[in-house]
Specification:
The structure is a single chain. The chain is α+β, with helices and mostly antiparallel strands and 342 residues long. Among the domains are: 95 residues, no CATH class; 76 residues, no CATH class. Helix 6 links the parallel strand 3 and strand 4.
Length: 342
């Protein structure tokens, strides 16, 4: 931190020359100009010392008898923002206040992408919680996705990109969201077939599906003989059948199908859904998609921040309406913290 001419005089008068000299020795060099301790314990201790130093300085700057111009120094404002992002103050067993470093995925309240110093990005607006959905514990996550997107659209904060974990998407939801100009950045559920799970034989991705001719070509260059629209688990699908004569003489029959007497069958989703699923699963393996999905660390960090600040893990009331209200208040508290830090 680079001070103007006057702060060192104020620092020496407030803390003494020995304390200022110790701070200068500890913080003069950029942290990326020297090697961090190899031990995680020592790194945690170093982070604790930095937090103690920062909190001591900030409390002095905002003390009633401190000069008002100290709060206007840009470096002081940045330091305060970083402390809010990275640390939290708790009360120990003796009633004293202590500062602790947040968990590894505590969000950067400016970027929303996990821990960070906050020195490299400062967008015009902070990232805020825009929707709260409280459900019963037995409700699958996927049932909440469309409702969340609908509420965001109604509030005129529809996301161009919606980052979700693997519990929230389905092929139907990805296609439906795309029709509303919402790109769901999320890992789709994997192919659960035996061939895909064991990496033996041919999974669905190994077959070439031609929606125009309604034919499917297998890796052994056999062509399907049946194409039947069906309902599978309440969803539209296509039942594809290969001739028994083709499968019976195929050299890859054993790893391809476990059926003793019948032929190989596939049940892909309708064309639009199948193509969307195939494209998304292929994209998931790229470095670009993995880098994009890393942004979702900010979401998990937001949850951890809510746990630290508001005690979100424990419901204070009974009944879904009251617990929902608690969650709304928790989200509002996080937003206030982030607005204040900004």
């Amino acid at each position: 931190m680079r001070w103007p001419a006057r702060p060192p005089i104020w620092l020496a008068g407030r803390f003494g020359t020995d304390q200022v000299a110790e701070w200068e020795l500890r913080h003069a060099a950029r942290i990326d100009s020297w090697r961090l301790p190899s031990s995680q314990t020592k790194r945690d201790r170093l982070a604790q010392v930095y937090g103690d130093d920062a909190l001591t300085l900030l409390r002095a700057v905002w003390a009633p008898d401190a000069p008002a111009w100290l709060c206007e120094i840009e470096a002081i404002g940045l330091l305060r923002q970083v402390v809010v992002q990275i640390y939290h103050v708790t009360t120990d067993a003796r009633g004293g206040q202590v500062i602790r470093k947040r968990g590894a995925d505590t969000p950067d309240t400016n970027t929303g992408t996990g821990t960070g110093t906050g020195t490299e990005a400062s967008p015009a607006q902070p990232n805020l919680i825009t929707d709260v959905a409280t459900t019963v514990s037995t409700a699958p996550d996927v049932t909440a996705t469309a409702q969340i997107q609908q509420r965001l659209t109604e509030r005129q904060v529809k996301p161009g990109e919606h980052y979700l974990d693997s519990g929230y998407p389905s092929a139907d939801l990805v296609v439906a969201a795309a029709r509303q100009d919402i790109t769901m950045v999320t890992p789709l559920p994997a192919d659960r077939s035996r061939q895909a799970r064991t990496a033996e034989g041919f999974d669905k991705a190994a077959f070439r599906i031609d929606g125009n001719t309604r034919q499917v070509h297998c890796p052994e260059d056999r062509t399907s003989t049946g194409w039947y629209p069906v309902q599978q688990h309440g969803r539209d699908a296509i039942a594809i059948e290969f001739a028994r004569s083709d499968c019976g003489s195929c050299p890859s029959r054993d790893p391809c199908t476990t059926a003793a007497w019948s032929n190989r069958m596939l049940t892909p989703r309708p064309r639009e859904l199948h193509e969307a699923t195939a494209a998304d699963r292929a994209a998931q393996k790229t470095d670009t998609r993995q880098a994009e999905f890393a942004l979702r660390a900010g979401v998990e960090g937001t949850i951890n921040q809510a746990l630290d600040i508001t005690g979100l893990r424990r419901a204070r009331y009974r009944g879904l309406p009251k617990v929902t209200l608690q969650h709304v208040f928790s989200a509002a508290a996080i937003n206030i913290v982030r607005l204040d830090a900004h």
